[in-house]
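Q: Structure for this?
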Amino acid sequence: MDIVVCIKQVPDTTEVKINPETNTLIREGVPSIINPFDENAIEAALKLREAHGGKVTVITMGPPQATEALRKAVAMGVDDVQLISDRAFAGSDTWATSYTLAQAIKSLGKYDLIICGKQAIDGDTAQVGPGIAEWLEIPQVTFAVKIEISEGRARIERLLEEQNEVVEAPLPAMVTVVKQINEPRMPSLKGMMKAKKAEITTKSAADIGADPIKVGLNGSPTRVVKIFTPPAKGGGEMLSGSADEIASALAGKLRELKVI
Amino acid sequence: MVKDLARKISLEKVLPVREKLDETGEFPHEIMKVFAESDMCGLYLPEKYSGFGGGVLEFCLAVEEISRICGGVGVTFAASALGCTPILLFGSEEQKMKYIPPIAKGEKLAAFGLTEANAGSDAAAQETTAELKGDHYVVNGTKQWITNGGEADTYVVIAMTDKKKGSRGATAFIMEKGMPGFTFGKKENKMGIRCSATRELVFQDCKVPKENILGKEGMGFIVAMRTLDMTRPGIGAQAVGIAQGALDEALKYAKERVQFGKSIISFQAIQHMLADMATQVEASRALVLATARHVDSGAKDFTKESSMCKLMASDTAMKVTTDAVQILGGYGYMKEYPVEKMMRDAKITQIYEGTNQIQRNQIGLALIKESAKNK
Ligand SMILES: Cc1cc2nc3c(=O)[nH]c(=O)nc-3n(C[C@H](O)[C@H](O)[C@H](O)COP(=O)(O)OP(=O)(O)OC[C@H]3O[C@@H](n4cnc5c(N)ncnc54)[C@H](O)[C@@H]3O)c2cc1C
Ligand SMILES: Cc1cc2nc3c(=O)[nH]c(=O)nc-3n(C[C@H](O)[C@H](O)[C@H](O)COP(=O)(O)OP(=O)(O)OC[C@H]3O[C@@H](n4cnc5c(N)ncnc54)[C@H](O)[C@@H]3O)c2cc1C
């Protein structure tokens, strides 16, 4: 089984800083990591390979420094990695990103399953995985907590708010995973040695046969108009006392605030 | 790379469970599995035997990082090396091929059994016997306080094959869990390193094939002493790790804790304590790593250096953890903060693999020998 995992390199921080002039993330001085959900995606792929054999290929679209993320994937034990990188990709929104990744996947030839993270912890849109599926015209199943493969079909348990849902899809398919699906393995020393030495294939827009007007800023219909930090929500107030006291205090407050 | 991976595993896999492991004394099976999968178990073993090809230096770097988070997990990791080292040093090619790869891959743990109820520092007072009967030996006796006892599959055990010869009558055997007549006694309830398994090995007419002798008959003490020379830097590294962990906590706390309207780190008394702690940790680390490099360079006799680094690092660990508790004040005495555990964990490093009194004896002896030679 040929599995493709899409990973994104993201800043290792919960406090994302934005450059107010360019409306883009400030990445300088912030160490980078593999998007945590994408580590789950790699783990899911490695588990499936252990069970069914085959090959796991990891791709990322990003600047040359994203090879760092790919090396970490090698250290975890994936078979092949590719960096999809070209100046022409700069300024991609989720539409252009998913187009580019879809083209990159097509250029690999055969694929049975594509695994993405649920969402990136910086961009947070959760659109890229489904976008790839649309460009490739294959089924998509999001929020997977369990993936089983048999006879050319994937059986996937989805994590929903109230209950889990089990769906089946024919392969090839695109699945996004949540963190509850597994615990990503640690890299191994031998894997890290291999990662250090690994030659990383880089593919350009031309290599993946991407249409120049569909990538980068040109191919991005959305424009970020403004990015700002909303004012923090004020702290709540806890009312105490008996149920009656709380109820009348609450009603008083609401009236005071002219809500009722 | 080794340090980074050991740190990553320690932070992600050990830190979240260390308090629970300390409380329950439960053996860290899950964590040992992670070490196995990440090739850490074979770190110091040659590639020929499925190891990673590092040496004592790499081993010490890993032990320090693990012990910085939990001394108990640190020794569990290190004790397998204590059990494997005699095979590496004295095993025949067949023995190495048979026993080392599973240990290197982390499929099996190893342990080393020298100490008995009446043979502690005086290791020559062994009461366990091995009697040759045809093509096998029959072993009888009890080993006490054996780290990884019960959890390990491969044991190197010292027994007397000829009591009349005294220390020249001891022999090292490779024993396997499951051999008829080999059972385990009670698991000890300890002050510190509580998640590490410390148990008795009980031998009752246990048959051991002749080919399980390590080295030659009568070489048991040489095997034991050479092994301990090689592994003591590991205990030094464990001690440095525990001390560094306590320093980390003390520093963090000193910055946060406010008294008299100031964070306590602004008091010179606290700064000086931290300065001494940091200096002692750094000096101990330097000595441990220098010794490790010396051993890896192929040095022949390093008993003195190996004793010195274990002595200094373990005394440092006791001092620094005690001071860390002091810096945290009453909070340091409470189980909510990790420094009281670190103080309990530190104590053992002054005792096992030879008490610090015995280390001083060895260093003294080496000094006398050296000065006699230089005359
Ligand atoms: C409206 C908009 C405009 C933007 N404009 C710009 C811009 O002008 N300049 C700029 O630098 N950035 C821009 N970005 C950011 C960038 O386009 C997104 O970060 C990127 O498209 C991925 O989206 P996401 O981070 O929300 O990922 P999600 O959709 O949340 O990610 C889901 C999963 O998709 C996969 N994935 C996501 N990105 C990649 C990748 N690059 N390679 C491989 N797999 C991946 C991973 O598996 C990931 O877990 C813009 C984003 C938006 C939403
Ligand atoms: C948790 C734990 C794990 C252990 N793991 C192992 C293991 O895996 N394998 C193994 O074989 N052993 C193991 N041991 C045993 C350990 O190595 C011994 O406890 C240690 O060597 C000291 O022996 P003892 O406890 O009998 O002390 P004793 O020898 O009875 O010493 C008591 C005191 O007398 C001092 N003393 C003794 N002789 C002298 C002397 N000649 N000069 C000056 N002072 C002296 C000692 O320093 C000590 O302070 C372990 C012990 C513990 C507690």
